[in-house]
Amino acid sequence: MIDVESALNFYRVMAYIVGVMLLVLCAAMVVKYGFDSDTMVAVVGPIHGFLYMIYLVAAINLGLIKARWSVGYLLLVLIAGTIPFLSFVLERSVTERVRRRIATAS
How crowded is residue 16: how many other Cβ atoms within 10 Å of its Cβ? Predict the structure, then answer.
């Protein structure tokens, strides 16, 4: 169960980082289209994309390998990094779900 807990912690960190970066990217999009300046998007976009790939690995490691979620739930968690605020909401759901599983396995 230590493997599951460490995978959960890494997932949680990545969910928050990707969620914040997605909000920054949304602000950059407002600057790009509202003020005709694409510099912020050019910087933040690739950073968010790279971090999102790490988030995908963390979610797949936790959900598919360690906690063995259903494919539907895993897909929802994977998509959460592309919808503003959803990664924060699902992080809470994932944490509760995994901790319940750990408690019942003990």
Answer: 14
